[in-house]
Write a structure and sequence with these properties.
The protein has six helices and nine strands. It has about 220 residues and is of the alpha+beta class. The protein has one domain: Electron Transport, Fmn-binding Protein, Chain A (Pnp Oxidase, Chain A, Roll), CATH 2.30.110. Bound molecules: flavin mononucleotide (FMN).
Length: about 220
């Protein structure tokens, strides 16, 4: 089957790799997430820390992939340019959603919550841990702004490289981290005949309420 139109029309996957039931799942969704992330690592899922981040600006949603870099206690850290589209969206509307898809395990996790900027210390620590080329790249790219040619970007990169020659590259003010705080999780496990398992956790009145949704 070489035709991509035919492929997307006809391709049917069977989901038989696992199940998710109330007896086995953790009471704390963050612990459950850690368990699944570890299993994704053991299953050698490529790019397992790549997550879709959905934000809203002027009532219009947009999404993109970013890397999860740190997590603790229902908080998830990611990094980028504060003047980018996502940066402006988060500034205007802190509500956001994350989505992980780990096809090798036939699993998806949706997490809803709110985002704010990470502390300058956290951003500095992460920035300082990056390879020098990425640090220079952060200065050179006005992420999500219009540029006329690729050349313009390369020139900027050259300029910044020269500027920081023989000295450490400091974090620009316009670049840093965000921390996403989860208030809702949905764990999805593919099952036979599209009768998938979906178990959700909703943080209400200081406790995680847990329930199952129809697939
Ligand atoms: C696998 C992958 C990982 C990425 N990781 C990041 C990241 O950690 N931070 C980031 O700002 N952009 C990352 N990007 C680029 C974003 O998807 C996006 O193009 C960029 O952040 C600009 O998005 P925006 O205009 O919506 O702000 C990644 C893209 C891919 C495909």
């Amino acid at each position: 089957m070489n035709d991509h139109h035919e492929y997307i029309d006809k391709k049917r996957s069977e989901f038989l790799k696992g199940s998710l039931n109330e007896m086995d799942i953790e009471a704390d969704p963050f612990v459950q997430f850690e368990t699944w992330l570890k299993q994704a690592l053991d299953a050698e899922v490529p790019e397992l820390q790549a997550m879709q981040l959905c934000t809203v600006y002027d009532n219009k949603p947009s999404s993109r992939i970013v890397y999860l870099r740190k997590m603790a206690n229902n908080k998830f850290w990611f990094y980028g340019n504060y003047n980018s589209k996502k940066g402006k969206s988060i500034e205007q509307n802190p509500n956001a959603c994350l989505n992980f898809f780990w096809p090798e395990l036939q699993r998806q996790v949706r997490i809803e919550g709110t985002v704010k900027k990470a502390t300058p210390d956290n951003s500095d620590n992460y920035f300082n841990s990056r390879p020098r080329e990425s640090q220079i790249g952060a200065w050179a790219s006005a992420q999500s702004n219009l540029i006329s040619t690729r050349d313009e970007l390369e020139k900027k990169l050259q300029e910044i490289t020269e500027k920081f020659e023989c000295q450490p590259v400091l974090r620009p003010d316009f670049w840093g981290g965000w921390v996403f705080k989860a208030s809702y999780y949905e764990f999805w496990q593919g099952r036979k005949s599209r009768l998938h398992d979906r178990i959700c956790y909703d943080f209400k009145n200081d406790v995680w309420d847990r329930y199952r949704l129809a697939p």
